[in-house]
Amino acid sequence: MANEGPALRERLEEIRRRGVAAFESAESQEALEAARIEFLGRGGLVSRAMSDLKALPAEEKPATGQAGNRVKKALEALLEVRSAAIAAAESGETDEVTDLTLPGRRTWQGGVHPVTRVIDEVCEIFREIGFTIATGPEIESDWHNFTSLNIPLDHPAADMHDTFYLDQGVLLRTHTSPVQARIMLEHDPPVRVLAPGLVFRRDPWDASHAPAFEQIEGLAVDEGIDFVEFRAAIDFFVHRFFGTGTRTRFRPSYFPFTEPSAEVDVTCFLCEGSGCSTCKGTGWVEIMGSGMVNPAVFEAVGYDSERFTGYAFGMGPARIALLRYRIPDIRLLYEGDAAFLEQFC
Ligand code: DAH
How many domains, in total, are found in the chain? Predict the structure, then answer.
């Protein structure tokens, strides 16, 4: 019959499709061998189809014979590939081909967090003028946190430091200033220390507040320290940290533990004093609270307040990092988002 050739070729094509599916789904050498026998074995589907070739009219034989050979070769080749893949999988390797043209994976390189970088730089600069580094506990007594610093517990200044109480008289420190008292209780003057650390407030979590943030406390006590030395130390720091062209301004303020007290402003380091959104058009940005140590603090720690004088200051390195790196939201500094922090590596 004239269409016997095409019918047989279609049958061979069907055998090829089924054979490919059977070989590819075989997960073990046994399953693969069973498929081999079914399709390529002596009495298998391919050889039975090939033996039907004999019954075809002569003119149909060559094309159909060639089609049969192609199916046989294709299945034999696939059998070989699958057999190797199963052997590799069984020995723990994979059948993935290594693509040597793929770019290598970069090794992860850590970096210093922008706030830590500010703290390190500030410490380094003050170290040059004789300051050492100290730390104090984050869980603090209300005596150290308030009373020793001339803040009576019922004083409105204590309200601003509303905090988390862990127990009667034990709280999460609201500032690093209690380290001043700890240092002075342990060491006689002269004292020049910087105390960086975390502090806690009942503050909202928004673009400019975080309930836990860093501070750096500074304290210098000696005989004969006056406001001039205080200003000179701050100017030295400001010129080093922000650049020699930066000017400082002391604005009168109030802190119970300093008298007189001042907020220190520097000329805005983004617009250099001409006014921009960072300095809200004033040309100045505030960088710390400060002042001459109140004699009441010396008395609380047993220092002779007639003999010794000193200055103290407290700054927020996260705020300085926001200004310096033009970061619009303080939360970015604390969320640990690697994509954001990578910019500073
Ligand atoms: N402890 C103050 C605060 O957290 C900051 C401060 C102001 C510290 C003046 C000082 C200082 O040492 O002299 O708001």
Answer: 2
User: How far, in Å, from the CA of 244 to the mean position of ligand 1?
Assistant: 25
Cβ-based burial of 303 (10 A; exposed 0-12, middle 13-18, buried ≥19): buried
Whether residue 231 is found in the same domain as residue 137: yes
What's the 322 CA to ligand 1 centre distance in angstroms?
19
Atom of ligand 1 nearest to the CA of 293: 13
Q: Among 107, 95, 92, which Cα is nearest to 24's?
A: 95
- CB burial of 142-171 (b: ≥16 within 10 Å; e: otherwise) equals bebbbbbbbbeeeeeebeebebeeeeeeeb
| One pLDDT digit (tens) per residue for the chain, 345 residues | 457 888 999 999 999 999 999 999 999 999 999 999 999 999 999 999 999 989 999 888 999 999 999 999 999 999 999 999 898 888 876 556 777 888 888 787 788 999 999 999 999 999 999 999 999 999 999 999 999 999 998 877 777 677 888 888 999 999 999 999 999 999 999 999 999 999 999 888 998 899 999 999 999 999 999 999 999 999 999 999 999 999 999 999 999 999 999 999 999 878 888 888 878 899 999 999 999 999 999 999 999 999 999 999 999 999 999 988 888 899 999 999 989 998 888
User: Would you say residue 136 lies in a domain?
Assistant: yes
Under a CB-based contact definition with an 8 Å cutoff, are residues 270 and 278 in contact?
yes
Pocket test for ligand 1, best of 126, 140, 155, 175 (most atoms within 8 A of CB): 175
- Both 242 and 286 in a single domain? yes
In this structure, is residue 104 part of a structural domain? Answer: no
Does residue 313 line the site of ligand 1, with CB under 6 A? Answer: yes
Cα(255) to centroid(ligand 1), Å: 7
Q: Is residue 106 part of a domain?
A: no
Q: Which atom of ligand 1 is nearest to the CA of 199?
A: 4
Which residue range forms the structural domain that includes residue 210? 114-344
Are residue 76 and residue 197 in the same domain, yes or no?
Answer: no
For the CA of 177, the closest atom of ligand 1 is 1
